[in-house]
């Protein structure tokens, strides 16, 4: 109903509707992307952290989509609250390997396949692990061992660890010192500035074929104020505002509609 009312081709604040090519290039997005581009060729470990909803997983998805599949073998893991054995089985599955023979056999097969992708196929693995703050100490320890090739003289693949900001605190523990020293790329999301938050809303409206004319400047500032630079909160708030605005027959979204949406979203 509200899409037609506001001349939107789709709801631009629904993450399932907007393609990667229409991504909003915030400072955070560009900073993470530039670091990922360095990491993909230098290989090693990159650590990317943010509060929930900041867009790090979306940035990772856009980066993966941008890569030539003939040059890089990209895999993504999000199920991280598992045992070491299940983690190895998951790695075997995504690499097309048998998970028989126990941990030792799986470890050997995984290392051999990673080396094959790097040295023979010339298609190095880029392994992204999302929600990495939930990984156990044992999995972190085994990741360090999987990275060890040629007496630790060569990086055969790229490991991307993404998680909430407290992942930094986890990795600062003494037990993870050896792994932490291997992390060459770091970035922690800062969130959208107020100006970026306004531009973010306008960008998304434009992508759906509408324009800034459907929302007042004061309403845009109100969105920025209540969401504190969090893209997910902006998306939720604006989706609600579109529904309320259409229901109230308001062709232009004003601060009253935003405040009503804020109350619905419990952001006040």
List the helices and strands and how they pair.
Elements: H1 2-5, H2 27-42, E1 44-49, H3 56-66, E2 73-77, H4 84-94, H5 102-120, E3 125-129, H6 137-146, E4 158-163, H7 167-171, H8 177-181, E5 183-188, H9 194-207, H10 217-227, H11 231-247, H12 255-265
Parallel strand pairs: 1-4, 1-5, 2-3, 3-4
Helix pairs in contact: 2-3, 4-5, 9-10, 10-12, 11-12
Q: How does this model look, in words?
A:
With 268 residues, this protein is an alpha/beta fold. It folds into 2 domains: 2-20 and 192-265, Helicase, Ruva Protein, domain 3; 27-188, 3-Layer(aba) Sandwich (Rossmann fold), CATH 3.40.50.300. The protein has helices at 2-5, 27-42, 56-66, 84-94, 102-120, 137-146, 167-171, 177-181, 194-207, 217-227, 231-247, 255-265, and strands at residues 44-49, 73-77, 125-129, 158-163, 183-188. Strands 2-3-4-1-5 form a 5-stranded parallel sheet. Helix 2 (27-42) crosses helix 3, helix 9 (194-207) crosses helix 10 and helix 11 (231-247) packs across helix 12. The relative contact order is 0.17. The model has no long low-confidence stretch (mean pLDDT 92).
Brief characterization of the structure:
With 268 residues, this protein is α/β, with parallel strands linked by helices. It has helices at residues 2-5, 27-42, 56-66, 84-94, 102-120, 137-146, 167-171, 177-181, 194-207, 217-227, 231-247, 255-265; strands at residues 44-49, 73-77, 125-129, 158-163, 183-188.
Spans of at least 5 consecutive residues with low confidence? none
User: In percent, how much strand structure appears in the residues?
Assistant: 5-15%
Report Rg: 22 Å
Largest sheet: 5 strands, parallel
Q: Work out the number of β strands.
A: 5
Question: How confident overall, as mean pLDDT?
Answer: 92
CATH topology of the largest domain: Rossmann fold
Distance between the termini: 27 Å
- The assigned structural class equals alpha/beta
Q: Which sequence of SSEs, written as H and E, runs from N to C? A: HHEHEHHEHEHHEHHHH
Assign the CATH superfamily of the largest domain.
P-loop containing nucleotide triphosphate hydrolases
Level-2 CATH architecture of the largest domain: 3-Layer(aba) Sandwich
Number of domains: 2
Order the strands across the largest sheet as they lie in space. Answer: 2-3-4-1-5
* Name of the CATH first level of the largest domain: Alpha Beta
Helical proportion, percent range: 40-55%
